[in-house]
Structure formats: C-alpha cells, structure tokens
Specification:
Elements: H1 2-27, E1 32-48, E2 51-66, H2 89-116, E3 121-124, E4 133-136, H3 141-145, E5 152-156, E6 159-160, H4 164-172, E7 179-185, E8 188-194, E9 197-202, E10 208-213, E11 216-218, E12 222-225, H5 233-257, H6 268-281, H7 283-301, H8 309-322, H9 328-367
Antiparallel strand pairs: 1-2, 3-12, 4-11, 5-6, 5-7, 7-8, 9-10
Helix pairs in contact: 1-2, 1-6, 1-7, 2-5, 2-7, 2-8, 5-7, 6-7, 6-9
C-alpha cells in the first residue's frame, strides 16, 4: 500500500502543476502537443484533438510540451502564431508561472476543505526547527552539566549540528559516554561536557534497546489557523497558504546561508516513506502532507535557477528589459549550469534519503 499512496501523492502534485501550464497555454492560444504524467517511455496514451495525453514510465515528474518550446524547433508558417516561442513575453511567463501557482491552488483547496470542516491548520515556528533548548528536566544530565533554557547547541564533539533530530540521534548513540558540547548562550560560545543517561526503551520491533538522553526538549511553537464558519474559511485558507509559503522561503534562505543543516533536505525516498506513514495515520495527515509538499514544490520551482520554472521567468525578465531574447549559446550554457546544480541537489537528497531511510532499514533487516 505504501507504493499506492506514493503514486497518488506524486500524481496529485504533478497533475496540478502540469495542469496549470496546460490551462494557461490553451487560454493564451498556444498549441499543446503533449500532456504527460511521468517521464520516459510512454505506457499509455491517447490523442484528443491536437494534444496527446500520456502516462509515462517514470512517475517522478511530468511535462507539458507546447509547440515551439525548444529553441531552433522547426515550425510551419501556419503554426507560428500558435507556437510558444512566437508569443509575447507576458504570455510565455504566464504559462511558466502557472505550474507553481497551481501547486499553491492545490494546497489552498486542501486547507479550505480542512477549515470548512473546522479542522485546524498548523504552521510551525522556524525556531522549532533549530537546536535551541526550550525546557530542561530537573536533575537530568543537561541540568547537571550547566545547560540552560534558550541555549543553542551548535556542535557535538567538534562536529557542527543544526538539526534537532540529528543532535538527538548523537545523544541516543552515546549512552553513558561523555560528549563535548559547544553552546551558544547570548553572544558567548561555551564548552560543556555532558554524559547522556542510559535509558531503556523499545524500537519499532518492540525490541528492548538502550539509548542516551540528556533531558532537554525543543521549542514546539506553531501558529494555529482555524475557521469558525464556511464564510471565513476561504480567507483563512489564503492565510494558511501564505504563512506556509513564508516559512518555506525562510527555510530555503537559511539552507543557503548555512543556518539550517543541508541534512534536513529530503527527496523521493523520504517523501514516499513519509506519505505512507501519513496515510497510515489518516486522511487528515495524508492530505496535510500533500498540501505542505505542494507549497514547497511551488516555492522551489520559482527559484531563479535555469531548467526550473523560476529560471525561465528570469530569462523572460531579462528579455523584457533588453527588448530581445538572450542568444541561444547563452541559454545552452545557462541550462547546463542549471542542470549541474539540479543534479547536485538530486545527489544530495538521495544521499540524505539513503542515510536516513535505507541504511537504517538494511541494518534493522540484518539484525533480525
């Protein structure tokens, strides 16, 4: 069933994204040759009118192919008025930006449904994603070592940490062993030694294990958006999408500045795992997860990186300012750079997914 829920998950995200490109292309008079869910070889397809609708083999994406999208593509004189490249800048930009906008629309529809049924939408505070301590258990190792509320743990045994789960895992693996902490307290950096207490607990297989705990908890602040009626729900849903979008932008900025660990970045394996877990909890958790990832996809797609939608919009803005498009050579080089960046990101997320999901699964399988 995990695969089923993952297919539904990716299918909804891809469908809404490509539907945005498709609808706006049709509205501005551009001929659409293909609408595909998935990449690679065609599994099934049917041509309706001038467009071929496809389901392709690789379900981690999709595409809409307008006529004349590729530079240098041969187009008959009859078709030129309906080709992508022959449209004014504003029409091409509208087609491109419609994909991310429709991902925001998907999130809006989900949040609207929640709020109409008086279900809350929670947006976590950015501080809750850091290694800042909110509470300390009395007489716990953390208190004995001298840690205080609002201390931020920046390094353990000389290795920097920016993610709470990453930090907690280090403590968990060192029961009874002294570890060296570097603490940020106000404007000071302080070195503290702490010995995680050995605590007995049970793993996912109900097997007893010993883990390390120092007795601290993180900030759990969140903005809760609720609606008291179906009349206020549409406005509250806009607020929910806006606040989640702002949080996503803040996280992206902190990733680039190094304030948030790159180890938090996840990819398809993590998403499949998380989607299956959310589906197991219930429909609310599952669709809430879809809405959040849809907003993330929209924001990331709008980054000004060649090969992403935001990169195309950047080129259109340059074209509008110059009064003419960039040369084909410049576009080719820019797209190669963009593809290199994208492949680097893909390598990072697959590495993180492997270390976070696959390696523990293999270790657990071998230990059974």
């Amino acid at each position: 069933m995990s695969i089923f829920w993952a297919v539904v998950f990716f299918g909804l995200l891809i469908f809404f994204h490509e539907l945005g490109h498709f609808i706006v292309a049709k509205l501005v008079g551009v001929k659409v040759l293909k609408f595909s869910l998935g990449f690679g070889p065609k599994l099934i397809g049917k041509k309706i009118g001038e467009t071929e609708y496809l389901i392709s083999a690789i379900p981690l994406g999709g595409y809409v192919k307008p006529l004349g999208e590729e530079p240098g593509e041969e187009i008959s004189e009859e078709d030129k008025p309906r080709s992508f490249q022959c449209q004014p800048v504003w029409k091409r930009a509208a087609i491109v930006v419609a994909g991310p906008v429709f991902n925001l629309v998907l999130a809006y529809v989900i949040f609207l449904a929640f709020l109409c049924f008086k279900l809350p939408v929670a947006i976590p505070e950015l501080d809750s994603m850091t290694t800042t301590i909110e509470n300390i258990v009395d007489d716990a190792p953390a208190m004995k070592a001298g840690l205080k509320k609002d201390d931020t743990i920046v390094a353990i045994d000389g290795v920097s940490v920016m993610d709470w789960s990453e930090m907690a895992e280090i403590f968990s693996k060192n029961p009874g062993k002294e570890v060296a902490l570097k603490i940020k307290r106000g404007n000071e950096l302080i070195n503290i030694q702490v010995v995680p207490e050995a605590v007995k607990t049970k793993d996912e297989n109900d097997k007893e294990i010993v883990v390390g705990r120092i007795g601290i908890s993180k900030k759990m602040g969140a903005k809760i958006i609720q609606s008291t009626s179906i009349f206020s729900a549409p406005f509250k849903a806009v607020e929910a999408v806006y606040r989640w979008s702002v949080l996503t932008v803040e996280v992206v900025v902190k990733l680039f500045t190094g304030s948030v660990s790159a180890k938090q970045v996840g990819g398809p394996i993590l998403i499949v795992d998380a989607a299956a877990k959310a589906a197991a909890i219930g429909a609310f958790a599952y669709f809430n997860f879809i809405a959040i990832i849809s907003i993330n996809l929209a924001i990331l797609n709008l980054l000004p990186v060649p090969v992403l939608d935001g990169g195309h919009i950047m080129f259109f803005a340059i074209e509008a300012l110059r009064g003419k498009p960039l040369s084909e050579r410049v576009l080719v080089i820019a797209n190669k750079v963009g593809m290199a960046l994208l492949l680097s990101l893909i390598a990072l997320v697959f590495y993180n997914d492997t270390m976070r999901i696959v390696v523990p699964w293999i270790q657990k399988s071998l230990s059974q």
